[in-house]
Amino acid sequence: MPTVIKGQPTSAEVRARLAGEGRPVLVAFSTGKDALAAELALRDSGVETRLAYLYLVPGLRFVEQTLSEQEDALGKPIARYPHPSLWRWLNNLVFQPPERCAVIEAARMPTVGYDEMWGLVKQDMGLPDDTWVADGVRASDSIVRRASFVRHGVMKHEKRKVSPVADWLKSEVVARVDQAGIRLPVDYEWFGRSFDGIDHRFLEPLSRFAPDDFQRVLDWFPLADMQLFRARMEVA
Questions:
Q1: Are residues 121 and 132 in contact, defined by beta-carbon separation less than 8 angstroms?
Q2: Cβ atoms of residues 224 and 100 within 8 Å
Q3: In tens digits, what is the pLDDT along the chain, a chain of 236 residues?
Q4: CA 101 → CA 92, 162, 223, distances in Å?
Q5: CA gap 135, 133 in Å, rounded
Q6: Model pTM?
Q7: How far apart are CA 230 and CA 236, in angstroms?
Q8: Cα 15 to Cα 42: distance, rounded to the nearest angstrom
Q9: Do 118 and 26 touch, CB atoms closer than 8 A?
């Protein structure tokens, strides 16, 4: 039975409203189970969608393989754009050696927020500014998320953000993805969740399962391997 979110329409009602508008919806597509469920649920409701993936580190082979497999499974392209965190990490000199700092600071790269990023994505994809951006956020994930939905809504009209499977349970998500015959990304085997950072939770498994991709992370963030060194010292 779906989660009841006080004062909010059901996910089915939300998707019906989106379908009634007769306009494309942009899906913030992470490749994970919830994003897949959101895409499939919108499709089931007759909503046209465009998919966009925000990459944390450019050119990771395992990410590209997943995106390629899911493009085939869904029968549509998944556009790639830089994640706001990539700009933030670089501008804040995260895991950068001293010799790179002056170069990065001289580049004066922008710091792009989420709302601005999705605005740029819409512009690049030729979508109107008021296009809805859908995500796979669900109330049952945490009390905080449920409270956020109650306070701010499932459909945030001002920011044009919508969560079309907000009241789904994990079992419903898994069942719909299984029904579609789509294999979940290798992220769940390696990290227990979608790839979402460059801290030890992700870097340690990456160093073992995909050393080439681990090196790719170090190409961009050379001192990131210090997290592995610190973890080994704490164990010792």
A1: no
A2: no
A3: 678 899 999 999 999 999 999 999 999 999 999 999 999 999 999 999 999 999 999 999 999 999 999 999 999 999 999 999 999 999 999 999 999 999 999 999 999 999 999 999 999 999 999 999 999 999 998 999 999 999 999 999 999 999 999 999 999 999 999 999 999 999 999 999 999 999 999 999 999 999 999 999 999 999 999 988 887 777 65
A4: 9, 39, 12
A5: 7
A6: 0.93
A7: 10
A8: 6
A9: yes
